[in-house]
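note to self: the first set is below, dont mix up w the second
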Amino acid sequence: MDEAHGNYVIKPLNRIGRGGFGYVEKVELQNSNGGICGIYARKVFALQDTSYRDEFIRRFEREVTYQADCLHTNIVPIYIHHLEGDTPWFVMDLAESDLVAELGSGKLTIRDKLTAIKMVLQGVAYLHDHDYWHRDLKPQNVLRFADGTYKISDFGLVKNADKKAESEVITKVASIMGTERYMAPEVFAGIYSEKTDIFALGVLIEDMDLSAIPGIDDLITKSTARKPTKRHTSVHEMLHELEKIIKGNGL
């Protein structure tokens, strides 16, 4: 059923994904005069389990607020959102696939993979520069768009590092979310920082299967060091090392 929202009309086309907290659908966006603005994706909160429903809704609202605040080429933008009622939603660009599918296709060249890594690092560096920790970095949350750009998505676990701006009150929800493979050791003790994102980035780079490139394993090893103090000091440092690897190998 078409839905009017401000100066726009949203026409749902078909569902393209579903998770534990709702679903994603392809929609056509029209202006109030009937002109077609384009095809987008809409993420809708529709949690069936009512145990922590209110907490999940607050987390969804925070996801929208923080993601909409991040304007960067390698972060999925949010254009329209509706945060009232039991089924809040937001509209974003429609992706062609995610990094999992791209890697699974076997079509990515070494240069493609290095370009994807660079784009992901640039997006996360922006987040950290603006005092956000993503806390759920993994290939599933890196989307690929028609122009070949990779962008970070899914801000469901994002935290504002500025304690004055945010109070972490959704501890029960946070304790059951995330993907273990990409979690730094200190996460299991409830400790988060930019270094936990750096650990996840190291594992994500490992997923790219680029060990044959001199320097990549060193980048991964330092990023995924067990002790946070042994990891890269920042994502900018990781980017600098990646650039040296690319240049040093003529890629």
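second set (the one i keep forgetting abt)
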Amino acid sequence: MSTSSFASERLCVLENFGTDPGLLSADTYIPESFPKNGPLVVVLHGSTQSPESYDIGTGWSTLADECAIALLFPGQRRANNLIGSFNWFETGDSQRGVGEPLSIRHMIKQVVDGHAIDPSRIFITGMSSGGAMTSVMLATYPEVFAGGAIIAGLPYHSATNIMEALVRMNGYGSPSDRQLDALVRDATTFTGPWPTISVWHGDSDTTVDNSNASSIVRQWQKIHKVEGPPTHVEMVDGYPREVWCDADGRVVIEYYIIGDMGHGTPISADGDKGLGKEGKYMLEVGISSTRLIADFWGLTQSA
């Protein structure tokens, strides 16, 4: 059996998830071991990818079996974007109550209602355009998510059209820190508690400049009231992890910059704890973003 057909058999199409103004597709993976009041992770693929290919690369459904996690995979249609990118930079697809964000919100509600998901344990992650759309969802529906992980993405509302998006991807013209904070605060009337934020980026990314990662961190620092240098830095699987803790000592932001890595999702496919499969934009660098993100969210089984 090919890996693509294997993935297709693992993921199930989600039908009838409410209005779909963004004209997206939706797939789910619910492990047999999934308990009532279990967690949900929303997984957003990158450009040129599909939900199935991103699942193969990241290993999310394998981890879901291991840790009893429900998964939702929103999918872009080529009719909406020629390279299959989420339209994170379009005004009609980057605000609450419209377009792709509303489609994803309706998908989440359908899965939550249909599988008795714990509403306090809903998380979202994505890479590249999926990472940028993760920023959109965290800003426009912050009350829905306990946490989000943005991989090779961009800060919320840093661009409002395709030309601005290309400039921002190249690392130019990002909003000021004051603007970054205001963009999230002005997206809703929400006042907290805010979702925790995990940021991942390769320091050799020539598709989305890694200055965008530090902008994402700064966008959320003031919101979480953790401005300034990290609370502490540690090494994880050979790479630095910077963390910011709130007044209660809880880690609210973590930031991994992966040395010598280009554009993609960092994976570690080998060994007993290996997940995913190396491929285009699925980069074998000896650290599993999938497993560590799930661990950050408290979803992995303790050893």
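remember for set 2: The longest strand covers residues 251-258.
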